[in-house]
Amino acid sequence: MRHPSGRPCHDPAPQSNAARDIAYALHPYTDHKAHLETGPVVISRGKGVRVYDDQGKEYIESVAGLWCASLGFDNERLVQAAATQMRKLPFYHAFTAKSHEPLIDLSEMLIERAPAKMSKVFFANSGSEANDSAIKMIWYMNNAIGRPEKKKLIARIKGYHGITLAAASLTGLPVNHKLFDLPLPGFHHVSTPHHYHNALPGRSEEAFATRLAEELDAKIIAEGPETVAAFWAEPIMGAGGVILPPATYFPKIQAVLKKHDVLMVVDEVICGFWRTGSYWGSQTLGIEPDILVCAKALSASYLPISAVMVNEKVFQGIAEGSSTIGTWGHGFTYSGHPVPAAVAIETLKIYDEMNMGDHVAKVGAYLQAQLRARFADHPLVGEVRGTGMIGAVELVADKATKRNFDPAQKVGIRLTKVGEQNGVILRSMANDSLGFSPPLIITEEEVDEMLNRFGKSLDEIMVTVRRESLAAV
Ligand SMILES: Cc1ncc(COP(=O)(O)O)c(C=O)c1O
Question: Which stretches of the chain score pLDDT less than 70?
Answer without folding.
Answer: 1-13
